[in-house]
Amino acid sequence: MSIYAIGDVQGCFDELLHLLDLIEFNEHTDQLWFTGDLVNRGDKSLETLRFVKNLGAAAVTVLGNHDIHLLVTAIFPEKIK
Length: 81
Known about the structure:
Layout: E1 3-6, H1 13-22, E2 31-34, H2 45-54, E3 59-61, H3 65-75
Parallel strand pairs: 1-2, 2-3
């Protein structure tokens, strides 16, 4: 079992998949630790979130500032200017 730490995916879903191919990630035996900012700059933030969620126990996530901003915007849209 290997554990990999990945930070600042920023919604760059295609690049994430390419990285996982390079390291030969196996969701049945390996684990990914995402160290914040799954969303933002890339155009595939939703795909990134869905992919990470579907990894289940193979993924551990820590919220980054962009992730927190997304949550605040979704919960309190009237507070965002």
